[in-house]
Write a structure and sequence with these properties.
The protein is α/β, with parallel strands linked by helices and 297 residues long. Helices cover 44% and strands 11% of the residues. It contains twelve helices and eight strands. Bound molecules: NADP nicotinamide-adenine-dinucleotide phosphate. InterPro entries: AKR, NAD(P)_OxRdtase_dom_sf, NADP_OxRdtase_dom.
């Protein structure tokens, strides 16, 4: 099934992290989640294992408050068994049930196969494998569409080559400083799949700036990559636009991307996101950005 997300999807991998059930911190996270559901963005993206299940739990509490109309706006992912690392058909069905219980929903518009590092593509595709479970859920109509959300790119290319997935989600690989997901997205496009591009800020540095954030894609960046970020910051400063706006619009303007998944866990960040979306980026910036990116080694 083809799904139709809005240009931005709200990512909640950090939502509710470390909060105790019933605590004021949980309540604050629920308040933020209510704002996410009440925003104009179609989907809120979570996963069975985000914040050890607390992301889904908080979203479930928010859904109780917002009402059933918001239920079709939550997208989650199935994860391996955290104890045994099993990731077969039965684990997929259990993971889906756990997510539905936390979220308080019976159906989902989209369910991703998340980071299947515990199994090979052949194991996942074999009878009794994880993908069989995903297809069963879609055939039963409790899931509208199924996606593959992982890394690295070559494994994702293998998964989308099977022809069974409706959507693909890649992270940190289609940004100002990394274009490695381009062939994957072109392939997915040609197959009529929905493309989600997650982590347009490289998980922070392209929003917070090179002086404040020290990682790209959850790792220490090379000096060479950091050098390109600094040069891009200088270009943005010369034009009076924030690097974060350019990083976001790089993904928003791409014809390869249906929806950009941005990590947002507070109402303040949600407002900032909407402000960044409204900024007009001068055309000359894209020329300078591409010149800097062309020096990547
Ligand atoms: N395998 C997968 O399926 C997979 C992998 C990665 C990501 N994802 C999805 O994609 C989402 C986004 O990924 P991500 O959160 O890692 O990366 P991201 O969206 O590139 O970056 C999020 C980071 O940017 C910061 N940020 C956001 N808006 C900002 C602003 N206006 N000013 C300054 N900093 C700002 C946030 O900081 P604060 O923490 O300070 O708010 C947060 O740490 C995840 O939440 C998840 O839903 C999926």
């Amino acid at each position: 099934m083809k799904i139709a997300p809005s240009p931005v999807t709200l990512g909640t991998s950090g939502l509710g992290r470390g909060t105790e059930p019933g605590s004021p911190e949980e309540q604050a996270a629920v308040d933020s989640a209510v704002a996410l559901f009440e925003s104009a963005h179609t989907y809120v993206d979570t996963s069975n294992n985000y914040s050890e299940g607390r992301s889904e739990a908080v979203l479930g509490l928010a859904l109780q408050r917002v009402g059933a109309d918001a239920e079709p706006h939550v997208v989650t992912k199935v994860d391996e068994d955290p104890e045994t690392r099993a990731f077969d058909r039965d684990r997929v069905l259990r993971s889906f049930e756990e997510s539905c219980a936390r979220l308080g929903v019976d159906t989902l518009p989209l369910l991703h196969f998340h980071d299947p590092y515990a199994v090979t593509v052949s194991e996942a595709m074999a009878p009794g494998g994880a993908v069989e479970g995903l297809i069963e859920l879609r055939d039963a109509g409790v899931v509208g569409a199924i996606g593959i959300a992982t890394y690295p790119i070559d494994e994702m290319t293998e998964y989308i080559g099977t022809g069974v997935f409706d959507a693909v989600l890649s992270h940190n690989c289609f940004t100002l400083v990394d274009r490695s997901a381009t062939p994957l997205f072109e392939d997915a496009r040609a197959r009529g799949m929905t493309v989600f591009n997650a982590a347009p800020f490289g998980s922070g540095i392209l929003a917070k700036g090179s002086a404040a954030a020290s990682t790209y894609a959850y790792r220490e960046p090379s000096a060479e990559l950091l050098g390109r970020v600094v040069k891009m910051e200088e270009v943005c400063a010369a034009h009076g636009v924030p690097l974060a706006a350019v990083a976001l619009h790089f993904s928003l303007r791409s014809p390869l991307v249906d929806s950009t998944v941005v990590g947002i866990k507070t109402e303040r960040r949600l407002h900032e996101l909407n402000e960044l979306m409204a900024i007009e980026i001068p055309d000359e910036i894209w020329v300078s950005i591409e010149e800097i990116q062309a020096t990547a080694i």
